[in-house]
Amino acid sequence: MSTLPSLLLVHGAWHGPWCWEQLIDELPDVDVQTVxxxxxxxxxxxxxxxxxxxxxxxxxxxxxxxPVVVVAHSYGGMPVTEALGTAGNVRRLVYLCAFQMxxxxxxxxxxxxxAPWWWEVHEPxxxxxxxxxxRVFYGDVEPELRRRAVGQxxxxxxxxxxxxxxxxxxxxxxxxxxxxxxxxxxxPLAQEVxxxxxQEVRRLDTSHSPxxxxxxxxxxxxxxxxxx
Length: 228
Known about the structure:
It contains ten helices and ten strands. It is of the alpha/beta class and 228 residues long. A hairpin with a 4-residue loop joins strand 6 (119-122) and strand 7. Helix 2 (50-62) packs across helix 3. The mean pLDDT is 96.
């Protein structure tokens, strides 16, 4: 029986637990759990907000019996930061090209309240779609896998990217920041700035989705974080 902590994987905006499948295959000796964030999905009328996402993350951690390392990808850093400051079994947070933000910040404020070119904002309907995901998210992903991933991309609620953080778990828990140096979705420069909030900084020469383009390399890095 493994003595390693469990690993909880928290996906980013527009995605779902499906994005972790290749990575999970590379971690056969680890208890890997995932969580589905309510703010991402196909029905714009059913999308949750940041608070719903934080509740889902908190429930997932509470359901794990024993220590856990939580990995947040991209937007997933927001609900993880909001939810886990008082979670007694969280050993470490890993921000994978993720938003490691301060209390009062929102994802929208991080881009100075100006949506990037690839955000298709549908304000009356309350959601955001991602334009050109094959370029923005999956630039170094193998073509067939990229095609399948693009086919599973959902919508993201506008509320989730507009609401500010009320807590910041990284003030209370140790964290590692993984900078993806060829990222077209979240600039490496912005990642460098946010990484100053973490105790450890790692780097991968990948696009925004190393769990698809370099799953074995990412698995090895996370294996090191589990025994830190």
